[in-house]
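Give me structure tokens for this 437-residue protein.
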Amino acid sequence: MKQRIKLGVVCLTRSTFDYPAAADLYKGILEDLKKLEQVDLVAIPNIIMEVEEAIHAGETFASKRVDGIAVISGTFHLGHLLLEIRKRAEKPLLLWGLPELPYNGGKIRLNSVCGVNLNASNLVKSGISDFTYTVGDTIDENWVDAVRMIRALKESHLGIIGSRAHGFFNVAVSELAMYEKFGTIIDYFTLNSLWEIVPEKELVDKYRNIMETAFPASDLPEEKKVKVCELAARFRMLADKNGLTAIAVRCWPEFAAGYGVAPCAAMSLAQSDGLLLSCEGDADCAITMICHSAAGAETPYMADLSQVNPEENSALMWHCGVAPCNLQDGACTPTLDTYHAGGRGVTAGFVMKSGRINMARLDSINGRYRLFNRAGEALPMEKELAGTYAKVRFDQKMQDVLDAVIYGGVAHHVSMVYGDFTQVFKIFARLKNIEII
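Here you go.
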């Protein structure tokens, strides 16, 4: 389910243009906006054209604590109006222009796009860049979803169990830089605090049912099955007790020896149940998962760009066996494997389903964030490897993708989902003033 947000909406006009027509159009727009999923509207019901009205609108948006404001240029209007609104409600903006109406007696009736131009110029020359624009009859839902991402991160509480994985310096983060940019709070938990949770029987049974449905032919020893299902329950209980939006876990090198099995298969089960989990203590990947989920992506998962084939313009997006088990291709025989950690691996093994994918990473470097964001197609393939994986053909040339990753110094994990969220992330990056790699 998408992140619920509160959106402000206002329509700016001027008496020298066809403001009655703009008012009629605005009424229809408000009816359409009521249909948006998981959106509470804070709409100024009437068109405004006076400074005092704009001041009141800004105060309304501020008092109602909206997450973003759609500013419709119903007609051309005075530049004061948006500036007075923005002064009182510093929120991400959508500058919305309406298509011009048929001319009436040789006169432009709306001149709406010129109003968008005026507003944008005033903002940019004021040093304000957290806006995008659209021209059309309907709202830009990519902007709406980008606002969802911003809201989700601002409310997020990230748990790190242990720390980052041994030697993975490149996934370390500055907690306060993350807070300053997104509002995310990080809390740490020891591995023992996870292992010592007494799992609830109902949860264990739930994950046992998920496991047996997803991996019906598993010959894993019973004691390992129990440990996997209990661990999935422990992840869920830790998240619920502490109000965690997502968890990044130090899944090696101590985990398998200390608990008895590696957490991969348990993470696969818990992620299929909607819990956001990243491996190897990777906090940046976890917050990218939060963004994907906020925009409506189903069960984000972490993947490595593992093998490349420039001739086919493809790459194998692989990880050791942690992807949500609901994302199987339905053709291969899924397995639970113990191929690593001295036989204590217990990882999921399957080919991911085919379809349109997006991979992204909010990647920090010296306290500054960049965005890696690519789209492609997951292709059918045979199950030839342990772990969970998909063969992806990128929209860009494989060599260009690889150059961006390597020369950009992007850490070796991405959040990967089905669907195309490329444009949503581009808007998110603009609204948050983040460099796109």
